[in-house]
Write a sequence for this structure.
């Protein structure tokens, strides 16, 4: 999946979900506000109708307006009460907000109920007119505070934000997981494609080398026999040259055999073995060269890991790495250790050579690449081929104290 497609597939839907969530939350709060205000308005209008009828009777009985209002001054549900005559004079009033009477002019759109903003919050006003004695017209104002509704809406808003935060955190974790899986999948796909290309290249190279070896081996054998006959029958002055020619022909034949063996498919014979046993085989094979150069090979005690491997091939891979270290080192020592790690088994080989340039640390495992003037570039390639055939990986790095360190990671024993 390309980057643009990835954003279109994950980011845009996530942004759309966030926008829809906020819209739905805002619409829900607005709907709740309208419904609650309508319910309060309906109940307050009914209360105003009942109270207006009662006030009408009490005023006809001669009760003073303020005295009639004082009877309801303790009602917690009613924020304020006010009695106003037809000229706008306040005849009596009672308010929970001391010294403040939030009465405003009636709006033309809704002459019976309306909401106003006050220091105490939103106040819903309801007015009811009724006749009194002496043909006078009174208006009864009732106020109901909507502060609880505001608190409920604020709580709803906070809850929505908390829910959004929780969903955002979960979404972020999910997105991060999907993104990492996507990156890992891309990496595996690219790695698999690279391996297929490399195998195809090796297949072509193997066929090419096999063809060359077949075409050259027969003439080389004939040339080797001719040199041998000349060595036996030629005069002494030419016998040495004939022997040298035979040796060089045999060297060419061995090089062709090595190339053919390196490029030939591996046939693994797996068995459960200890990593230390494989190290022992490699050290034994490399000991003559180590003694000849005066460079000791030191085996550090490990954790004794076991693995399923072809003992001979894996020992060959280790031997090639040790031999490479011996050839690169003028002094110092070769250190080998095996230990368990998360992947399974880690085998490391350290040398005291000049090290490997960073640009060449991947190329040294390619076929026929060598930093040595007389190198063929097949030893480390064969080591990588053997390690990868076991499901492992090999890498080279710089050693802190100087030199190089080769690391082989292999799957451990299952079960």
């Amino acid at each position: 999946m390309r980057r643009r497609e990835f954003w279109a597939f994950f980011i845009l839907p996530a942004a759309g979900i966030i926008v829809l969530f906020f819209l739905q939350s805002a619409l829900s709060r607005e709907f709740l506000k309208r419904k609650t205000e309508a319910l309060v308005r309906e109940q307050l209008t009914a209360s105003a109708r009942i109270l207006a009828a009662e006030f009408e009777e009490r005023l006809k009985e001669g009760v003073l307006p303020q005295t009639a209002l004082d009877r309801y001054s303790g009602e917690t549900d009613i924020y304020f009460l006010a009695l106003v005559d037809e000229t706008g004079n306040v005849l009596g009033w009672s308010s929970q907000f001391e010294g403040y009477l939030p009465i405003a002019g009636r709006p033309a759109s809704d002459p019976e109920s309306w909401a106003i903003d006050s220091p105490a919050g939103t106040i819903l006003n309801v007015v009811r007119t009724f006749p009194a004695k002496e043909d006078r017209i009174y208006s009864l104002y009732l106020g109901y505070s909507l502060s609880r509704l505001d608190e409920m809406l604020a709580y709803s808003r906070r809850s929505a934000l908390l829910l959004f935060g929780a969903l955002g955190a979960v979404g972020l974790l999910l997105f991060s997981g999907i993104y990492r899986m996507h990156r890992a999948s891309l990496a595996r796909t690219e790695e698999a494609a690279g391996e297929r290309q490399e195998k195809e290249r090796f297949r072509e190279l193997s066929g090419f080398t096999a063809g060359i070896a077949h075409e050259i081996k027969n003439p080389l054998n004939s040339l080797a026999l001719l040199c041998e006959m000349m060595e036996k029958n030629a005069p002494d002055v030419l016998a040495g040259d004939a022997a040298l020619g035979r040796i060089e022909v045999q060297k060419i034949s061995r090089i062709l055999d090595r190339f053919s063996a390196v490029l030939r498919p591996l046939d693994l014979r797996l068995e459960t073995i200890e990593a230390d046993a494989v190290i022992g085989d490699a050290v034994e094979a490399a000991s003559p060269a180590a003694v000849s150069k005066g460079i000791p090979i030191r085996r550090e005690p490990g954790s004794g890991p076991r693995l399923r491997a072809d003992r001979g091939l894996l020992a060959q891979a280790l031997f090639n790495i040790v031999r490479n270290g011996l050839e690169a080192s003028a002094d110092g020592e070769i250190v080998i250790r095996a230990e368990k790690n998360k992947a399974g088994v880690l085998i490391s080989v350290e040398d005291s050579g000049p090290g490997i340039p960073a640009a060449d640390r991947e190329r040294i495992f390619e076929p026929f690449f060598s930093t040595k003037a007389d190198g063929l570039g097949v030893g480390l390639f064969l080591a990588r081929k053997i390690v990868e055939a076991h499901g492992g990986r090999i890498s080279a790095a710089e050693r802190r104290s100087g030199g190089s360190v080769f690391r082989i990671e292999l799957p451990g024993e299952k079960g």
Notes: The longest strand covers residues 121-131. Helices lie at 3-60, 65-70, 147-233, 236-263, 275-293, 311-328, 379-389.
